[in-house]
Amino acid sequence: MLTRYASCLSFAGVHPEVPGGDPALPVWAALNLTSPDEPQQFLASLLEKDNGRLLHFYFVLSQLDANRQRFFTASLQRTKAFYEAFRQSSQVVGALSRDMTLTSISDLFRELPLDESGRVLFPGGPDVWLAAKNRAASSMLTAHLASRRAQMSAVPIYAIAEGDALRQPKLLDTLAGLVTDSGGLVFHVERANELDEVFATIAHDVENTYLLAWKLPENAGRAFRTVKITITEAPGAQIRTRRGYLPN
Questions:
Q1: How far apart are CA 183 and CA 141, in angstroms?
Q2: Distance between CA atoms of 40 and 60, rounded to whole angstroms?
Q3: What is the pLDDT of residues 88-112, one digit of tens each?
């Protein structure tokens, strides 16, 4: 295990240089239950905790650029949440990773789109994403406005509901309506280890999407136009598309 991950165990004098730098020292001390100020105990705890999974996670973050390291270690709550998703991933077996034909969770960490200030760059822009936390009332956008933005941007939305959101029927209905309008999917996640299948489904969906384009007649107006697609030579085929669009 040490041979595989030795490159992440760098020291400044006798103190380990942790992913995220000095501001992340309290995060790693809490997550590892041992302070980096005690390097021998810190290393021993990394090796032993969760059958080497924490060391694997530490290694993955150490391979990221400085901006992403700061993002993933910005707070104990954030780091712990990502570690739980990583620890429970079916791709991670102890200190090792299984070979995957699809994008792995490590790739997801490495390729998470961030701007220079460390904020997530949402596909299609933040305006098409419904930020639902605890209650729909805390959303950045109303469902109607988010749906309208999605219709204008032609971005399919994939929503993941977990935690408290699963116990809020109104919020789940809102998410279902939003993704249906955009041609996307909504997922209900009970456990963190279900995320692998969710991301694999989204990747498969994107890889098997067709883009159709057509030219509108002059003076088409700005009213909402519905979309209907049928296939005549594929009995039993199921088609999912956006409900319609707003002319630019």
A1: 19
A2: 21
A3: 776 665 545 444 333 467 777 888 8
Q: How far apart are CA 172 and CA 150, in angstroms?
A: 18
Task: Tell me the whole-structure pTM to 2 decimals.
Answer: 0.51
For residue 73, pLDDT over 90 is answered with yes
Confidence of residue 134 (pLDDT cuts 50, 70, 90): very low
Whether 177 contacts 147, CB under 8 Å: yes
The pLDDT, as a whole number, for residue 2 is: 62
Q: Which residue has the tokens 């890889």?
A: 207
Q: Tell me the residue ranges of DSSP E strands in the chain.
A: 11-12, 15-16, 92-93, 96-97, 158-162, 185-189, 225-226, 244-245
End-to-end CA distance of the chain: 56
Rounded to 5 degrees, what are φ and ψ at 101?
-80, -25
Backbone torsions φ then ψ of 92, nearest 5 degrees = -110, 120
99 vs 45: CA distance, rounded Å: 26
Map tokens 């996670």 to a residue. Answer: 57
Q: How far apart are CA 117 and CA 166, in angstroms?
A: 32
Residue 156 near residue 242 (C-beta atoms within 8 A): yes
Q: How do residues 141-184 score in pLDDT, each as one tens digit?
A: 566 666 666 666 667 888 888 888 888 888 888 888 878 778 88
Whole-angstrom Cα distance, residue 151 to residue 181? 7
